[in-house]
Design a protein that fits this description.
Helices cover about 75% and strands about 0% of the residues. The protein is mainly α. The two termini are about 40 Å apart.
Length: about 450
């Protein structure tokens, strides 16, 4: 549906007002739903793939659909949202709304997959849809908040990301161990506990995003008359592709420096999301057979592990701005990543499921920093009229390492690690430590 751009003409230039806690809450609440979708995807899709017959060394390839869609979708959505304005719907909120509908439908259908190809296709659709909602949320903070509140704004996002991920990660375990809903099923069938978790996730996703859509207003472009003239002058698909291409090759220096840190950080995170379930099932539960109760129990416990690291992320979300105020954002991020990397490596030596919760504390601290500090540094280095676009391009440096990890790690498991996927987590830990050390090269303009 085309968005009408006719609004009262004239120049608008104003300082962005300080937001109240309630306003920060409302504008970021949608991230609760978005993270419900991501958490269910991250903790359960490998389990679904293996249940439907995927081999361990093929899981990474199947996961390539998710980052590949982000590579395409995020800069396009960012570019389009920068060039959107509607008197009622605003700039970013139409994309929140559309992405939420598509994501909720994909979450509802995913656990009813009856063939591996169907689950792989739905992962592609789900990840693309989540990205449609998520990418404008990053620019939303830059649009609405003054520089002094940006770290707090991204911290509020991290808070809701953590809460959403905690509850979503816990759901399969809760359904099985509290409500006594089975976590096993015949070969090729997704267990009922996983199905119900995805149904709940679909409902929460759309409800939370709608809360933000209907409780938050947006500022129009500062000089709306000039903005509308430029939009009409530069309209068209060819021009859009040209602008996106030029923008990629004219990234701010700070963005390129952060890109190097992001590469090693997201190799680590993607390694963890893809391989934690098979790694823990083999290393701590002693099984690689997906139809056994031991494997499904391992899958439930991985949900608990992911719940713990996400609980730490939202518990520390509002602590990070205070630490960064005194230690600096770069140093804070470096320390968090190094701690997280060491904790990932430590899982090699832990055979008890209970002890495996301990390293998740450090991973949670790193995850909290990943969701907060790079974006607060980046927002200060971007031109306001291209905030959405560059936030989308920044996703390249999340997506590219994921594609590398997906393409390479399956080979490593089969030929280098002799089927022992726990060593993928060790590799990820080393990569996260490297990312932490490379934080020192970043130039934080606000500091």
């Amino acid at each position: 549906m085309a968005l009408v751009t006719s609004t009262p003409s004239g120049s608008i230039a104003f300082a962005k007002p300080q937001m109240t806690f309630r306003q920060l809450f409302n504008m970021n609440f949608g991230f609760l739903g978005i993270q419900f979708g991501f958490a269910l995807q991250n903790a359960n899709v490998s389990r679904i793939f293996q249940t439907l017959g995927a081999d361990i060394d093929h899981i990474g390839i199947l996961w390539m659909a998710a980052p590949a869609t982000g590579l395409l979708v995020q800069p396009i959505i960012g570019y389009l949202s920068d060039r959107t304005w509607h008197p009622k719907w605003g700039r970013r909120r139409p994309f929140f709304f559309g992405g939420a509908i598509l994501s909720s439908l994909a979450l509802f259908i995913m656990p009813n997959s009856y063939e591996l190809w169907m689950a792989a296709l739905l992962l592609w659709i789900l990840d693309a849809s989540i990205n449609i909602s998520m990418e404008p949320f990053r620019a939303f903070v830059g649009d609405k908040l003054p520089p002094s509140q940006r770290t707090s704004g991204f911290a509020m996002q991290t808070f809701f990301i953590g809460i959403g991920a905690v509850i979503a990660s816990l759901l399969p375990y809760f359904f099985h161990n509290v409500l006594d809903i089975s976590n096993t099923a015949p070969a090729g069938i997704i267990p009922p506990s996983v199905k119900y978790s995805f149904y709940i996730g679909a409902a929460v996703f759309i409800s939370a995003v709608m809360w933000t859509v209907f409780t938050t207003k947006e500022f129009p472009p500062e000089n709306i008359e000039t903005w509308e003239e430029e939009k009409l002058r530069n309209n068209g698909i060819i021009h859009g592709i040209s602008e996106i291409t030029k923008g990629i090759f004219k990234m701010p220096k700070t963005m390129l420096q952060l890109a190097v840190v992001q590469f090693f950080t997201w190799v680590a995170l993607f390694s963890m999301w893809i391989y934690t379930t098979p790694a823990i099932a083999q290393n701590a539960y002693g099984t690689t057979v997906t139809t056994t109760k031991a494997y499904q129990d391992a899958g439930d416990w991985v949900g608990i592990m992911f719940m713990v690291y996400n609980a730490v992320s939202f518990a520390t979300a509002f602590l990070l701005p205070f630490i960064a105020k005194f230690a600096g954002r770069k140093n804070t991020h470096m320390i968090c990543l190094i701690i997280g990397g060491i904790c990932l490596v430590s899982q090699l030596y832990l055979k008890s499921p209970a002890l495996l919760l301990i390293p998740m504390l450090g991973v949670g601290l790193a995850w909290s920093s990943v969701l907060t500090i790079p974006y607060s540094i980046l927002a200060g280095a971007l031109p306001p009229n291209k905030m959405g676009f560059y936030m989308g391009v920044f996703n390249f440096f999340i997506v590219i390492p994921q594609l590398v990890a997906a393409a390479v790690l399956g080979f490593c498991v089969k030929h280098l690690f002799h089927g022992e996927s726990i060593y993928v987590l060790v590799t990820g830990g080393v990569s996260m430590i490297i990312g932490g050390l490379l934080t020192k090269i970043v130039n934080d303009k606000d500091e």
